[in-house]
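User: Here's a protein and a ligand (FE2/S2 (inorganic) cluster). What would the complex look like?
Assistant: Let me lay out the input and then the predicted complex.
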Amino acid sequence: MAGNILVVDDEPVVIVSCERILTPEGYSVKGASSVDEAIGHLQNGDYDLVITDLKMPNKGGLDLIKWLRDNNSKAGIVVITGYPSQETIKDALHMGIVDYLPKPFSPALLIDVTAKAISFVKSKGIEEVTSEEQEITAKAEEIKNVIVSNKDRPGGLIPVLQQVQEILGYLPPAVLKLIARGLNLPVSEVHGVVSFYSFFTMKPKGKHNVRVCMGTACYVKRATEILDKLKDILGIEEEEVTEDKQFSLETVRCLGACGLAPVVVVDHDTHGSVDPVKVSGLLEEYN
Ligand code: FES
């Protein structure tokens, strides 16, 4: 089982869609149409992830997040929201969400956000990292120095994340846990900030980073075909780097250029109306 998920939304269609999309991926999905019903499920079972709407009649998603925190729940939290920049998202970030889903979201984005959130919730601390992550352990002292020198600085989290990303090139889960402990913040808050700002990355990158938009407008214009073609050409899956370290591949939610859908961004270049058949030509510019 990939993980136990509770979906909380007053719109039954959202719950049914999440079940239909996530169950074939190996997740066990339960639904709740109100915060009170969700609390009932949480008191009677273990969940790895809670995906909750922020706006619901009577009690909203923030009430549920507060309950989860007050009850020291280990479940990660992903919020569903109409506008990711609205005030409630800021409140949710401070309360420790892992990630967010902008409404409406595509099946590919739901699968992607869920997989990343679950892998974060189940990830190890820095003391437990394996030998493949020797680079992280070798730089642990340097990272700890950055944390200590920013420890008492108000708003120190973002500068710490920037400096640590400069040292390692990315921000893996074990390091986020180290930062959270050092700054005395909930891990989920640190992860929420990293997910929210696109300049932070939790995975190593190649010389050229290829991002395929999986937002709704791009999804309906064959973004999945583009992604599959890129995986074939590069010989890697999402979040991986080619052996020669030339390319990395990732998916992103709406890039705000829906009129150009489907959109692929390579480094800082935006390519619009990408034809899945001609996508290999697009990469040739970067060889
Ligand atoms: S959905 Fe791809 S740019 Fe908006």
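Summary: The mean pLDDT is 86.
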